[in-house]
Amino acid sequence: MNTPRASGVMNADIATWRARMPAAFGATPARRALRAVGWTIFAVWLVGSLWWFDITPQRLWAGLSGLGTIIVLMVPPSPGEQWVEILQGMAESVAMAFLGTFMAAIVAVPLGFLGARNIVTATLWRFSLRRVLDGFRGVDQLIWALAYVRAVGLGPLAGVLAIFTADIAVLAKLYAEAIENAEKKQAEGVVAAGGGRLASIRFGILPQVAPVMLAQALYFFESNTRSATILGVVGAGGIGLQIAERIRVRHWDEVAFIILLMIATVAVIDFISGRIRRRLIGAVR
Question: Which residue spans traverse the membrane (predicted)?
Answer without folding.
Answer: 36-53, 60-77, 97-120, 141-164, 201-221, 228-244, 256-276
